[in-house]
């Protein structure tokens, strides 16, 4: 029989003394929400275990009591995956942080789930290696959340999603079973690759506790160019030329529509490295081994595509500070909340050739429904990922449901995906059928039911449990 609230809190207090358990007024405001702009929710309690075994014990106690659990990381998610649920226990990994091992021979790093991404990046750099995963929230997002959402970021075109750098994984199942598969081997085909179930599952199938990350050699040089182009056809052709002419050196291909550029340079106040206005703006980055060889190779390629008429203008980096200055233009979207006020942010995927037509259609539909609508478009176009920021300037409280219905219906019409790298969580769940077939959704539900038959782990997120009553 499920325990009553007081009995559960007493058992949790006994198992998790001191700062490991927060309840009532002791729960910090940061644990009442993530970055999805959903209303604050005060949970039953926040548990902050600091070992894998403690995470397993927390899950076991909650499962025995029939109480829902929500895993929390850095709380930087935009889809509501880490948002609290009334009456649930939050299991925060923030105290379980640190790097356990760097193995140069296998080029691996073993990390705890509560470790910030930026800490991992710096540790790899100091050891002479490189972690390619990079997000704007690098200083506050935690690697467990990155794994749970299969985060993408800026360099997917070369290195792939988070999934591509996970060799081994340890996780806790919804019944409290701790499963350790901290494999270091690049080749390991011994049975099912179970870790793939938990990467991108947003904490609905298990809670990640530790991971073995694959590191890459540190680049010997980095070069970048910020380019102005005259048409979207030129953007597509430039991408093809970059893949062909730069090969594996190409590490980023970021495209910014003129509406984004205008907001960044005029509203945010970021200084433009280019003169004049252009139909599109592209940030190219390459990572090479030797500046004396790869630097001239990059310059030669830029000259060829300029002479071919693909570029109207280009600013070329002369130093790493120039590279950072170019990225500052692309990363200025972090200032949108301050400068634009409340808005709706979207992360979608589309075939590269469809992106400009999609942007035109989406912009028109938003203005037709809301004459004062503003929408801007930008993203990691090299890997098919487009970001959208939209708002109705006529009102202060944004009509998120109305804007979302227009954006996602347009995504469906263009046969794209409603989520490229930010997950589904709560906010995108109603639109998941736009992207996944009925058969796929049914299979997801069967997997959820098999691992979490009571539906207690992050309930209501991503997919519903078809059997069992949620507590």
From TrEMBL:
GO terms for molecular function: FAD binding; oxidoreductase activity. Keywords: FAD, Flavoprotein, Oxidoreductase. Its cofactor is FAD. Transmembrane segments: none annotated. One of its GO terms (biological process) is respiratory electron transport chain. Residues 39-218 form the FAD-binding PCMH-type domain. The keyword Oxidoreductase applies. Belongs to the FAD-binding oxidoreductase/transferase type 4 family. This is Oxidoreductase. It comes from Sagittula stellata (strain ATCC 700073 / DSM 11524 / E-37).
